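HUMAN: You are asked to prepare a plain-text protein record giving the amino acid sequence and the backbone structure tokens, both parts labelled.

ASSISTANT:
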Amino acid sequence: MNIIDGKLLAANLRAEIAEGVAALKAEKGVQPGLAVILVGDNPASVSYVTAKEKACTEAGMYSREIRLPAETTEAELLKLVSELNADSAIHGILIQLPLPKHISEKAVINAIAPEKDVDGFTPVNVGRMLIGEDCFLPCTPHGIIKLIEFSGMDIKGKSAVVIGRSNIVGKPVAVLLSRKKTNATVTLCHTGTPDIAKFTREADIVVVAAGRPGTLTGDMLKPGAVVIDVGVNRISDASKPKGFRLVGDADFESCSQVAGAITPVPGGVGPMTITMLLWNTLESAKRGV
């Protein structure tokens, strides 16, 4: 059984990205720029934004972090997005979610210019992805494809099951796996699926993104399957200094006895999300030259 090291793959890709950034600066005089907007002081969001800023700096990118008070109005935020859309130093715009309840996430995301939508969340980029046109792919789903390839699995012709139908992970992963480039046969399971195990036992690839610990267990797997665990859940653990530990949606102990390869939590999918954000920002800067 192979534990798929997301930290190692992310480090390899970030080294490539840093080389690409240096080359773009040297050849065209362009430094890729990412603007990250944080509204309010949600602790998890602050942590994510700090990690993104650090990753940008390490890759040689220009990072503009914009922190706004929770009372910021939707009109003020939309005005800021419009200004960033017109700013030639900024190649990617990221809105840290969730936003305060008085601001429409849909309205703000829709306001981002598709050519600067490095999260791949705007309807234009989602639509382009669906019909197979060139676009910015959503970061976590794109990272998942990279992890499956990194495991040594040739996706072409394989049977894949995705558990979870969120707009951020489940649905786009299903689309990416079924594209002609990857060519898997995909089943999308969710809370309305009567017997998920019936599908997962036939799958060469299982991506579990249900947001619930223990969703996938070893007895639900085909021997040798590749398991990508997207879940990050806190469970109580008195033996830990913080009183909890992080687990995924897959029961690692039982699944690792059956799977051919599996991502750990933490250290699997997580490191890939910011990495693919950097990837998209570099691509955006290249296109703008």
